[in-house]
Amino acid sequence: MTARKTKVFYYLDDYFHFDNLIDRLDVSKVDVYSLLGSYGRMKAFKKGLFTSYENKKIEEDFFQCGRYYDFDLSSSIESYFKQHTKEIFEQIQEEDDVVFLIEDIDAQLRFYDLFREYKKQFPYHFHVCALGNYDVREGVTDGMARIFPYYFEVDSIHIYNEKDLIEAGNGETDRRTARQLLIEQMMQDVNSIHFSLYHSDRDHIWFYQDGYKEYKVDVTAACNAVKEHHDLHEVIPRWEQPDQCCDRFRKLRRAYVHKHWIRGWAKEKECTHRQICTGPCPYCEQMAYALVDRNPEEQPQRAPNPYARITGIMRFREDIDGPGIRSLVLFDRCEMHCAYCLNKATVNILPVTEMISVKELTDHLKKDRVYQDVSGGGITFGGGEPLLEADFIKAVHTMYPHWDIGIETSFHVKTEAVALLLPFVSFWYVDIKDMNPDIYLAYTGMTNSLVIRNLKFVVAQGYQDRLVVRVPHIPNYNTAEDVNRSKQMLLKMGITHIDEFVYKVVLS
């Protein structure tokens, strides 16, 4: 069987064009494909060693936009790319290692997204090699990793950063020299790296700096906007309009200032990360912490400080896990054995951490309080099964009694845990699986007697309006008739907020 080559795709523009790319790559090992060739630049390359998909009109429009990418143009480029999707992806075979070379990340995110989306339809491995000039040393904190949407769906990301190399050279290396050195390193790596080492069962982001010394950075830690003394992992979803991200954060902070009459708050300076961040950068975090610290209502009350094992936090989930902007805190532990367990997929994204105290968690969550407060949002606890940590959640409420708290639960817990939290939890999202005990047992390995008991308890206490009961269609386990039967049983109990949906099956 003939060994498959690495397939390298790259975007060719007239600002920076990976000169003599074919000469730099070993074409006996690597196939090279150019996307969107610019003007006569293609003629400078050796014919027959790569494929070009050209569209001069779009290229001309691109140049009119200036150095930074105009996001209004993205639909044109996406439309162009989709026209050639068939011939582009005909070059890719099953289980191939596909490497996308990126120089201008803003301009090429659409291509990245389309490669990533196609990976869901066709089993190949997708890797990114990105050249840039960013403050990566702070960050890993600075939005650099976050600008790659759904980075955890990519097999590996390799970042070649000019600024770090310049700093490591103590001023002796200028930007042009740094770029050329990093290009050479990138080409050597594409020729020699065994990308099969970085397939999606292992998450990697690699930074090349300090004379090309490479080191592994935990993918989820790379997305932490602020690295605290504890080890809480975060995921921040990519905003649909990154160029509006900074403005929206500032408007929300300004609304918080007016709502709480915070005196002496100066007008914020223009953000230097505009159009590259898709979540809060260190400046946003600093401003948010400062505002919360100046609000007397946000000062903690005396409370117990228990510990719990927390998988991580999904931040800025808007109108998903409850109203407004919310932080979803995921506990690790669960006693059920669901056939399509979402938590298994979550653990791959947010590795299990050490035990975290209530104070450590709340100190970490405070940076999002500004945005939650003015949007009517709050904290949602999920997992895992959050009600196994009811004492921990109660301590969070005791410490910050005005925080809005929601729970996502199976209700397969002792009623005492529900009773402990019932007076102050704003809403309960309860996934009942199915009211038929045989279906429930087949799917979870448990009986549903506790679930039914807890639903009846909440109704008897008069809190049924806070219940949103989720009734899923579970492929291979229940039918439409089963779902309808479950809904009728819930209505007879007095439960009226019923969410019927279809499980998105996640296989382990």
Can you tell me about this structure?
InterPro entries: Aldolase_TIM, Organic_radical-activating, rSAM, rSAM_sf. This is Radical SAM protein. The protein has 508 residues and is α/β, with parallel strands linked by helices. 34% of the residues lie in helices and 19% in strands. The chain contains 18 helices and 17 strands. It has helices spanning 21-24, 56-64, 74-83, 85-89, 105-121, 162-168, 175-192, 219-222, 245-259, 282-293, 342-349, 358-365, 369-375, 390-399, 415-421, 437-444, 449-460, 480-493; strands spanning 6-11, 30-35, 50-53, 97-102, 125-132, 156-161, 205-209, 213-217, 234-235, 307-318, 325-331, 355-357, 378-382, 405-409, 427-431, 467-473, 498-502. Strands 9, 10, 11, 12, 13, 14, 15, 16 and 17 form a 9-stranded mixed β-sheet that branches. Strands 3-2-1-4-5-6-7-8 form an 8-stranded mixed β-sheet, sandwiched between helices. α3 (74-83) crosses α5 (105-121) and α14 (390-399) runs parallel beside α15 (415-421). The chain is globular and about 75 Å long. The two termini are 30 Å apart. Mean pLDDT is 75; it is low at 37-75, 136-144 and 209-230.
Radius of gyration: 26 Å
Anisotropy-based shape: globular
Q: Roughly how much helix do the residues carry, as a percent range? A: 25-40%
What is the count of DSSP helices, taking H or I runs of 4+ residues? 18
State the end-to-end distance. Answer: 30 Å
Strand content: 15-25%
The computed structural class is alpha/beta
The major pleated sheet works out as: 9 strands, mixed
Keywords: 4Fe-4S, Iron, Iron-sulfur, Metal-binding, S-adenosyl-L-methionine
Cofactor: [4Fe-4S] cluster
Protein name: Radical SAM protein
InterPro entries: Aldolase_TIM, Organic_radical-activating, rSAM, rSAM_sf
